[in-house]
Amino acid sequence: MNKVLEIKNLKKIYHSKETETIALKDISFTVYEGEFISIVGPSGCGKSTILSILSNTLDKSSGDIDLNNKKIAYMLQNDCLLSYLTVLDNCLIGLKIQGKVTEEDKNYVINLLNNYALGDFINKYPNSLSGGMKQRVALIRTLALKPDILLLDEPTSALDYQTSLTVSKDISKIIRQEKKTAIMVTHDINQAISMSDKIIVLTKRPATIKSIYNINLSSNNPLDRKKEKDFNDYYEKIWKDLDIYE
Amino acid sequence: MSKEHLEYLKKEKKNKLVIITSRLLILIIFIVTWELLSKLNLINSFLYSSPSKILNTIIKLINNKELFKHINITLYEVFISFSLSSIIGILIATLLWFNKRLSLIIDPYLTIINSLPKVALGPLIIIWVGASINSIIFMALLISLFTTIINIYSGFNSINKDYIIMFKSFKATKYQIFRYLILPSSLNNIIATLKINISLNLIGVIMGELLVSKQGLGYLIMYGSQVFNLDLVLTSIFILGIISYLMYYLINLINIKSKSLI
Q: What pLDDT, on the 0 to 100 scale, is given for residue B258?
């Protein structure tokens, strides 16, 4: 498999007037083409910081990131849909900012919207969508940029439990069908196991890598994965690694 | 439609009717009581006037072509100062948004000027700008501009940070963030600020006219009180009330229109 991203000794220090906080220390891992990677860790440990640095919205303190000229797109926790634009225009906003909305791009986005049950809402405004639909639109807006790697920051944490399950299923399906590489940050171990090929467990702040698990489950459907025998084994190992009570 | 829904609609309709009739009733009772009190000499109509005297004064002012001259002058002054303070206010707020450091530097000055009772500057303005319509517009501008800047600027800054991060991840320039995110998201706040702005300008213009003018509704109030023609004073205040209501109504219309634009 081709390497698409290599991170070596990534370090991030936050500075404030009173003190400095080391958020990340010695983070190194490699991402291969088509992989779905999840990063889990205790809350506040700096999971999202990794994505912010990769998406270039935050500067790293030191370390190397080798992107091999791959294109990255970032999907935030908040769907960030613009209430004054239609669903289609929302999906095209990233391309518009980069100054290149071709007919081909437009058709690509319309196809995605049609394929993922949003065809009736192309010219509607976000206020007519449900929470799960909004998250799907946000994902399609990210895909519209035709990235090689998608960064997903807690993509379902703003949703209720049931919607979160269906959205996880949708995201997993869409990313696998479009053959994308993805790095997802989540606090939910269940979600991580049910969606990913590889899970990186971080320690408490300052975050370092505690362990990396390759997830070998036969199904790619998150809902089916939960029924598999090994699911709970993974869960227990990762839960132990998180050291919540120490 | 179900029976329950029909009943619900009926109830809503009745509710609305009660509100509208009550509103009208308050106005009618107020006018009739005032008129009766004055007719029965229970209040001194020389001091407190009466609805019929106000009506007579309006007719008189229309007949000698005075009324619309004064209304026009006041409206003209409000229009000029409102346009100036809205345009300059939005421009300065934009400049401050683009230049965070500048906004931090001038922040205390903005706060001081905004909290200063501008009417205290009245005599100075007359001396500096001259006893003319310019003084009045300047006064209104001084009263409305800083509130406009502060309100619009804080609206620009209240946009959820996640949206800005998303735009940055698209590699948007600062101009693009402003054009595609900040400005359209602030539209409601801008309209709300303009609503406040228009009444502040009306206050400013009347204040200016009270201090220095030979025309306008503020002048009529000042003149009326000087010659003890209180009918004229109350008539002018009555017309001012109608004008400020109409202006508010107009901005509301713009609000609805602009929502359908974006």
A: 67
Q: Which of A55, A78, A97 sits opposite B176 (nearest CB)?
A: A97
Q: Is residue A202 part of a domain?
A: yes
| Residue A25: inside a domain | yes
Q: Rounded CA gap, A30 and A5, in Å?
A: 6
Nearest Cα residue in chain A from B175: A97
Work out the minimum CA distance from A94 to partner chain B, whole angstroms: 6
Q: What percent of chain B has pLDDT over 90?
A: 72
Distances from the Cα of A220 to the Cα of A195, A239, B146, B230, angstroms:
7, 22, 59, 85
A77 and B162 within 8 Å at the Cβ level: the answer is: yes
What's the domain range around A210? 3-80+148-227
Supply the ipTM of this predicted assembly.
0.89
pLDDT in tens, B39-87: 999 988 888 899 999 999 999 999 988 889 999 999 999 999 999 999 9
- Contacts A84 to B, Cβ<8 Å: 184-185, 187, 262
Domain count, chain A: 1
B180 touches chain A (CB under 8 A): yes
Tell whether A93 lies on the interface with B, counting CB pairs under 8 A. yes
Taking the Cβ of residue B163 and every Cβ of chain A, the question of whether any pair is shorter than 8 Å is answered with: yes
Beta carbons of B166 and A97 less than 8 Å apart: no
Q: List pLDDT tens digits, range B83-131.
A: 999 999 999 999 999 999 999 999 999 999 999 998 888 889 889 988 8
- Note the pTM of the prediction, 2 decimals: 0.85
| pLDDT over 90 at B168, yes or no | yes
CA distances from A146 to A57, A90, A185 (A): 19, 15, 20
Say if A222 falls within a structural domain: yes
Pairing of strands A198-202, A209-214: antiparallel
Q: Domain of A208: which CATH number?
A: 3.40.50.300
Distance from CA of B79 to the nearest CA of A (A): 30
Q: Residue A145 is encoded by which pair of tokens? A: 């940029």
Strand partners, A73: A150
Confirm whether A37 is domain-assigned: yes
- Per-residue pLDDT at A246 exceeds 80: no
Q: Write out the two tokens for B71.
A: 């209304």
CB contact under 8 A, B184 and A145: no
